[in-house]
Structures are given as C-alpha cells and as structure tokens.
Amino acid sequence: MEAFCLRWLLLVWQCFVIPVWGLEFYKAAVYEHSTVLRQNLIPPTREEALELMQKNLDIYQEQVHEASKQGVKIIVFPENGIHGFPPTRATIYPYLEPIPDPDVVQWNPCLHPTEYSDTEVLYQLSCMARNSSMYLIANLGEREACEFSDPKCPSDGRYHFNTNVVFDAEGTLIAKYQKWKLFRTEIYYNKPKTLQHVIFDTPFAGKFGIFTCFDILFYEPAVSLIERYGIKQIIFPTAWMNKLPLLSAVQFHQAFAAAFGINLLVSNQHHPEYNMTGSGIYTPLDFPYYYNMKSREGKLLVADVPIITSINNHTLEQSDSQTSTFLQEQKGAVKQEQTDLFNLRDRMKNIQLLIICASIFLLVCVTAEPVITEGGWKSLDEQQNRDLFFRILQSYFTGRGMNLGLSRKEKLQGTYGSKIGSYADKSNNNLYNKDTFTV
After folding, report:
1. What are the boundaries of each domain within the chain?
2. Which one, of 167, 174, 162, lies nearest residue 198 by Cα?
3. 365 part of the active site
4. Is 419 a catalytic site residue?
5. What angle is formed at CA 29 by the lines to CA 249 and CA 35, rounded to 5 degrees?
6. Which residues form the signal peptide (predicted)?
7. Which of 27, 73, 179, 232 is catalytic?
8. Beta bridge pairs of residue 190
9. Residue 399: left (phi > 0), alpha (psi -120 to 50), or beta?
10. Which residue of the set 5, 110, 127, 213 is catalytic?
11. What is the C-alpha separation between 65 and 133, in angstroms, rounded?
C-alpha cells in the first residue's frame, strides 16, 4: 500500500508539474532557527543589542561550518533570525545597521570592516561566507537616515527596513532586498519607496531571485519576479506563522514551488509557541522539509537541488473576457485587516473537486495502513477509518492542526494528537491520543 500511494502521488504531481531540468545539481542548505530572543521590552543599548545578536550569530556560524563539511554552495537563514521581534521602533533601533547599496558600492565587510560604522553583524556574516566559500543569505534590520524635506521621512528622521543581504563565496555584499509587503505587526519597519525585483547570479546555478515572507502572497513582488524575469530559483527567508486551512508553511510553499516549476529555498523561524515552523528545499524532483511543533531545537536541512534549465513562461490562466485573478480585486475588511477580495464563484467547482481529491488521497493512503500506538501495532477497523477520515477533514476546515514531527523526505511520518481529538477503540474502550502513522 505504501508503494501504491507514493506512485499515485507521484503521478498526480507529474500531471500538475512537468518541468524541464538539467542533469546537474548543487547542494543547498536552509536553517530553521530557534532565535534567541530578548524578553525585556525596554530599548537596549547598542552593546546589549550586539550581545544578543552575537548569540544568534554564534549559532549561524555553527550551521555554516556544518554545511561546509557537506559541500553546501548556498545557505539561507530566516527572517528576523538575528535580532528577533522587538515590538517598537525604539526597541528595534539599536539592532539596525546601515547597509550600502551593492549596485552602487562594491564592499567586502570581512576585508574592509571599518569602511562603515555600526556594521558588526555585516562583518561577521561576510566572514562566514568567505571562510566557508559559500553564498550566504541572512535577514537583518537596516537603518537609513532621511531629511525632513522628504515628505515620507518618519518623525524620528530615519527609515527602518526589513532587509535580506546576500554575500558571495568571497564575502562580498552582492545584493540586498528590502521587504515590500510588511505584515500588520511590523509597525517598526517602513515600506520601501519603490518595488524591488532583486536578482543575483551564481557560478554554480545561475540566477536567483529573492523576497521575504508576506511578499509571497502577492502578485507584486513574488509572481511578477518569476514571470517577468523567468527566475527559476527563489531564496525565501521567512518568519511564517502556520494557520490552517490554507496558510500552513509546508503546504503553501510546496504548492507555490510546484505551481511555477521552481526551486524554492525556505528558511523559517522555529518557535512552536508562535506556531512558527516549516522550512524546506522545494524542487520539481523532491521536497525535503522540516515541520516540528514539539522540539525546541533548530534544524539544518541540506539537499541536492537540480539546476532547472527550462525557461517556460508560467503565466496565470485567464479567459478572453477576464483578466488575471490578481488584478480583479476589491478592498474589504476581514478581522479589521485591509484585505484584497476576489470573485471566485466561477472557480468553486474546481476548488471543491480539489478538496474531494485530496480527501480521497488522505483516506486511502493514511487510513489504509495500520498505526503504531504506545501498546504496539493496531489496525483500524472500518468505523475507525471513517472516524479518522472525518477528523482529518475537521482539522482542515476548522483550523485545528495536526502536529507532524517531520524531517525525512522518504516518507510521511508523524503524530496526531489532542489537537484533532481522540478516537475510541470500541472493542476495548481505549483512547489513542498520540498515535504515529506512516505513509
């Protein structure tokens, strides 16, 4: 049954995604980081901020060293992984650094650390990349002074940006990207003046694009970057909070990569208390990922990534009488948030069919095998099959999640527990609250 389910899933996967890739691979790593956080809400001094950031940078250094031993060419760290989540402009300011524009200035912080002041973090990241001969992508806060003659200049006289930095294997800063779509809690950051489509080149895999977390939900900048420039490899630092039914990290990111036939390198935060977990290296050939709501430890994922040679233009379908769904939007308020609303009436049949097909797959492939309980092997009878099937549907539609401690790419393994309820074995009145299943 296991082999049948995997073959069936592969067939469905190939029906939806038929990419063209080369025979060459490169080794990539993403790190799901359990960020060391500051609990004190009083704004720190620069020295206190550096002390906290050093704890996270030390962990980064360990992961770079481990990745280097495995021959990794490029490594990605998560959004807010260095300084955490300071809640206000005053509390985040001591963590920020000025970041010169790589399109204007060529700078290697590891070789020239004193060229710019207050760039201790950039210096360490640069040296990590240089000493490991590895491309390195990290996220940190950026500050930029502005004149009050600038009508958009904040009242404190500076811009704060959520910025990704890219270092090449020599430690040179070759790209930076300022997050375009800020989440509603990011009140301490400013939106850039202009939309950026940032692309950088590598000798081992060609061009990469980059954007951050909430960006992926919008046509600009995510879809437009892929469609307009034919980018097949995306770097994606994120601090993704899982929310069912449609915003579970692994689910969404795997689907995004499949839809566009790209390699998507996702590095997420690891804070189960905030529903943050789910990192992966999603490719047309394989999709190793990590999702664990139990462990408090970070996780380094390393995988061989195919170099995609296709230049197919993956555009969204649209009829003659209808423009792209991304353009047919209205503004509305949902839970006091400004939200884009779309008319999906004509697409509901397809959506319903997709849900039914997914449900059938779960019923066949999850419930057809025995489950392992604390007391040994237990086979589910017909009633229990139905019970588990509807528990899965209930989890999907109500948002009460399934806790999967997943880190392997060969098979689906994990636990389901109290979050989706218990089911009773009527033969002996036992309740199985923490069962493990394998597909």
Report:
1. 20-308, 346-438
2. 174
3. no
4. no
5. 60
6. 1-22
7. 179
8. none
9. left
10. 213
11. 11
